[in-house]
UniProtKB/TrEMBL annotation:
This protein's name: Glycosyltransferase family 2 protein
PANTHER family named in the record: RFBJ PROTEIN, UNDECAPRENYL-PHOSPHATE 4-DEOXY-4-FORMAMIDO-L-ARABINOSE TRANSFERASE-RELATED
Cross-referenced InterPro entries: Glyco_trans_2-like, Glycosyltransferase_2, Nucleotide-diphossugar_trans
Domain Glycosyltransferase 2-like: 9-171
A Pfam family annotated for this UniProt entry: Glycos_transf_2
């Protein structure tokens, strides 16, 4: 609890058996998390079994692999059903440090923001943490394009470390979003669409063998998906098109 608000950490998981327990231990050591929700997207390893052994953890397993975006949809639905008022997503691969949870939760719990991102770019942590140069260049290009098209000023749109208020999650039309990786980008575009301010904190990150990462082919698909989302946002703002991603808020 923070300010009498229930804090739930959600973990969209796929083959995270090697790093799940370490991530969980550090999450719970922060002393403010009430519940962990782990959604296993039909892993091939012992992710679900390990998760079921962890205290204060609710586990749900997709019967078949549905994709990263579909995994998050289940995560957020479950968090809202459990009464979460501050919901923080962190990957169970230990790429992002859970030590920022109190800071991110405080920014939401004190009513300053409804969305807080852990940015790998602020402070120059991306390359220091081992992000491949080609991914860094793609990140910078897509972020610049996103900022221009959305009229925002984020340091990056592609972090998997995010905190949300209950109010915000209930307003987002998440069911309209992709079940694939571009879900992340669509979600942020929707937050900007609804005129919420997105805060960022500098986040150290680590790239290593067990850390999740998408291959080049899927990265290219994701990149084009981000560009498509930004274009739809701009055209919808200009009232040239209508989109389920960006419903009329009037």
């Amino acid at each position: 609890m923070l300010k009498n608000k229930k804090i739930i950490v959600v973990m969209p998981a796929y083959n995270a058996a090697k790093t799940l327990r370490k991530t969980y231990d550090e999450v719970m050591s922060q002393g403010i998390v009430d519940l962990v929700i782990l959604v296993d997207d039909a892993s091939d390893d012992e992710t679900a079994a390990i998760a079921r052994s962890l205290p204060n953890t609710r586990v749900f397993v997709h019967k078949k692999n549905r994709g990263y975006g579909a995994n998050q949809k289940t995560c957020y639905q479950m968090a809202l059903e459990e009464g979460g008022e501050i919901i923080i997503m962190i990957h169970p691969d230990y790429q992002y440090t859970p030590k920022l949870i109190p800071s991110m939760a405080s920014m939401i719990g004190n009513g300053l923001y409804h969305c807080v991102l852990g940015s790998r770019i602020l402070g120059g942590y991306a390359l220091k943490g081992g992000m491949p140069v080609w991914k860094y260049i793609a990140n910078r290009f897509l972020t610049l394009t996103g900022n221009i098209m959305l009229g925002a000023k984020l340091s990056e749109y592609h972090t998997g470390y995010r905190a949300f208020s209950r109010e915000l999650l209930k307003r987002l039309p998440l069911d309209a979003n992709s079940d694939d990786f571009v879900f992340d980008n669509q979600m942020l575009a929707q937050i900007v669409w609804l005129d919420y301010t997105i805060a960022e904190v500098s986040c150290p990150t680590s790239y290593f063998a067990e850390a999740s990462s998408i291959n080049l082919r899927r990265s290219i698909k994701y990149g084009f998906g981000c560009l498509n989302t930004a274009m739809k946002f701009r055209l919808a703002k200009m009232k040239i098109i209508t989109s389920k991603l960006f419903p009329d808020t009037a």
